[in-house]
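Data card: per-record layout.
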Amino acid sequence: MSLFGQAAASSSTNTTGDISKDVALNAPPEDGISDLKFSPQTEHLAVASWDKKVRIYEINPSGGSEGKALFEHEQPVLSCCWSKDGTKVVGAGADKAARMMDLSSGNTTTAQQVAAHDSPIRCARFVDIPQQNSQMLVTGSWDKTIKYWDLRQPTPVASVSCQERVYSMDVVNSLLVVATADRYINIINLSDPAKFYKTMQSPLKWQTRIVTCFNDGSGFAVGSVEGRCAIQYVEEKDASANFSFKCHRVAQTGVGSNNNTNVFSVNAISFHPQHGTFSTAGSDGTFHFWDKDAKHRLKGYPEVGGPITATDFSRQGNIFAYSVSYDWSKGYSVNTPQLPNKVMLHAVTGDECKPRPKTGAKR
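The structure for this 363-residue chain is written out next.
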């Protein structure tokens, strides 16, 4: 039986994907969804929301879901992440704090504060620092700093000043990428975590919304508010492989459209854990799967009924989760109770995320 019972294998010749069998998460957040992350060890999903809560759900093979734990912040939660061993979940947000729940303790309702900044914390990630015995937490804030935290200590181990407010951050192996306002992107080698290995301007011309590292740590993808995505390698020797492309744009139709195009923000980028292909999702309410090496779109999916604000693949790559909720692009007044707040689970089947077959003889 295929995952979720009904999902059919996709055709290698059809580039339009099917979302008709996608399953909604039970008891979703009550306000906008800011982040979601699968556990690296189990079939659990953490979801952060503007309703000030981080929820942890268990996902079963049929696509069913059950809430297992929940903890609260004092203000909206903007980020969530898991420790490598899957026992700890951290939330970070507008209350200028990061809070951690230790699931191995049996606690399912309270979290301890483990980090603090002078302004809201936009991003939190667990990192492995060489010569350190345990994982550390790194937080990026609108106070223009990133801070490293030993979870056994109340004060940061190190603080690094950035040029501007931190908007997005991701880590794979020893690569930490920090994107800020004014299109700065800072690259850190975690063997020397207190300084920037390299600083660059985004290859995209407008505000950065998301950065996500490649699985092998050789580079990262950047998404911006202008409906563009860039593939960027860290080292100069790979610069010839850098490129950018348009996405999440909708051509206007009808009388007076003048061939204009509506351009939407790229809000989320996720890499498939096995195949190395990746997804983009945007405020146009669509998601797409791409092969960066072939520079090819594998699948595009129909509009889901609202902006997609966050995405993630499960640890085995067989589930793609995406949140549908208001993206705050038009301010507070537009956020009405009629807007959706849901997390959908898409079964990844067949060749949906498999790289495009390489053609031509090898030399």
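Known properties of this structure: Residues 213 and 220 are 4 Å apart (CA to CA). DSSP finds no helices and 30 strands in the chain.

See the next section for split statistics.
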